[in-house]
Amino acid sequence: MERNLKNVLVISFGFLLLFTAYGGLQSLQSSLNSEEGLGVASLSVLYAALIISSMFLPPILIKKLGCKWTIAGSMCCYIAFSLGNFYASWYTLIPTSVILGLGGAPLWSAKCTYLTIAGNSYAEKAGKNGKDIINQYFGVFFLIFQSSGIWGNLISSLIFSQASNKVEISEESLECCGAHDCMSEATNTTASAGPSESLKYTLLGIYTASGVLAVLLIVIFLDQIKSDQAETEKEIQKTPSFWSTFLATFQHLKDKRQCLLIPLTMYSGFEQGFLAGDYTKTYVTCALGIHYVGYVMICFSAVNSLCSLLFGKISQFTGRKLLFALATVTNTACIIALLLWKPHPNQLVVFFIFPALWGISDAIWQTQTNGLYGVLFEKHKEAAFANYRLWESCGFVIAFGYSTTLQVYIKLYILLAVLVLSMVTYGVVEYLETKSSPGTPTATKKENVGPHTQETKM
Q: Alpha-carbon distance 188 to 172, whole Å?
């Protein structure tokens, strides 16, 4: 147990260091690189590359390099993105976004494969249930990993708070904040002043060093997993080619339940994209300044992490329908409030209430949608989760793609429309399930949630 647990902790802290850097950078892209929409364009390209990557790269790299070196190599792709931000331009940020996107899918697949094999290996030796051990390992991983959102954003806010060129925001400038933002003008005087180059380089230097430490931790301390389990080896041999993975993903769309879940899965990308790309820029940076982005996103990350743990536990008692209803009501209330609210620095608490509520609903979308896929498509998990990654990434691509071309109030209406459509199609799925198996409880099966919970979050 000690050796296996050591490997789980090495992976967990490696991901913590890596995503401390990436999470902080993603939250800042729309504010830090706002010229011509470069920041959100890079995120859109990043998720488009992730779609392509998830189609064929993970099985090929895991087979050729093994889990350990796939993780280490993929982490280097994230470091490239940090380096691209030092001299942010279309010629540096877009290529490094593509590199990160290509490395994203293999990184998460290799992590999942490693923890699953390690869990099964220990369970076999100890005579325990494999699923129980795997759930424990994933629980330890996510407990550590989820805090990355807190540390990455805390670092950025502490550094940008040192800025000496903070500008008083005029009432005129505040008119351009919120749902009816002035797209043609600079967001406001605070945004245009921005942090100094030295502060930017300090932050990016810390983020890059964090990524390098993550790679060193994996290379030095993580044991190479031995593929001595016949089943695992056969599985890797069978995975194959780009075309077989590609076809399996799209053949799964013959299942009408999968087609009906597409809006819900895409909504997950839309709502995360809105918070990271639009709320941080047109509400927080516009009215308070870029140094507040980190604090606001810490609030989101902390609530999201705690609620993910909570809803994962209580779903077996409440069932998923009640939780989906709670997320729908919470998100709808937030969207309507954001349409009506005019952000002002005097209302500081309100800036934190929205991400907290968003964190509650996002925790439900992540845990319960992943769990729903695990329950509905138990016999075709690989193709089902490939579809999950595909459609969620499509949501991110679209949300970041139109970020610079539409006003915020239009994006909020789109978000609301997709949410309503998602709940209608989800209701149809539940109806079909009840019709086909009236005696089966709808609560999420506990054993299916653990390994998949939030594994699609870059």
A: 9
195 and 163 Cβ atoms separated by less than 8 Å: yes
**What tens-digit pLDDT sequence spans the chain (458 residues)?**
468 889 999 999 999 999 999 988 988 888 888 887 888 889 999 989 988 887 778 878 888 888 899 999 999 999 999 999 998 889 999 999 999 999 988 898 888 888 888 888 888 887 777 777 877 787 788 778 878 888 988 998 899 888 655 556 777 778 888 888 776 544 444 444 567 888 989 999 999 999 999 999 999 999 987 644 434 444 544 545 556 666 777 787 888 898 999 999 999 999 998 998 889 889 998 888 888 988 999 999 889 888 887 887 787 788 889 999 999 999 999 999 999 999 999 999 999 999 999 999 998 998 888 888 878 887 777 678 778 888 888 999 998 888 888 899 999 999 999 999 999 999 999 998 888 775 544 444 444 444 444 444 55
**CA pair distance 97, 75, nearest whole angstrom:** 13
Q: Give start and end residues of each alpha helix (H) in 242-380.
A: 242-251, 256-274, 286-287, 293-318, 320-340, 348-376
CA angle 281, 286, 288 (to 5 degrees): 110
Q: At what angle do helices 256-274 and 408-436 cross, to 10 degrees?
A: 150
Block residue for tokens 């629980």: 139
C-alpha 101/C-alpha 433 separation (Å) is 35
- Distance (Å, whole) CA 229 – CA 127: 16
DSSP symbol at 60:
H
- Do residues 105 and 54 lie in contact, with contact meaning Cβ atoms separated by under 8 Å? yes
Compute the distance between CA of residue 96 and CA of residue 77 in angstroms, rounded to an integer: 8
Orientation angle between helical segments 2-32 and 197-221, nearest 10 degrees: 160
Position 189, amino acid? T
Q: Name the residue type at position 423.
A: M
Angstrom distance (rounded) from CA 147 to CA 256 = 37
What kind and span of H or E run contains 8?
Answer: helix 2-32
By the 10 Å C-beta count (0-12 exposed, 13-18 middle, 19+ buried), 125 is classed as: exposed
Half-sphere exposure of 407 (CA within 13 A, CB side): 14
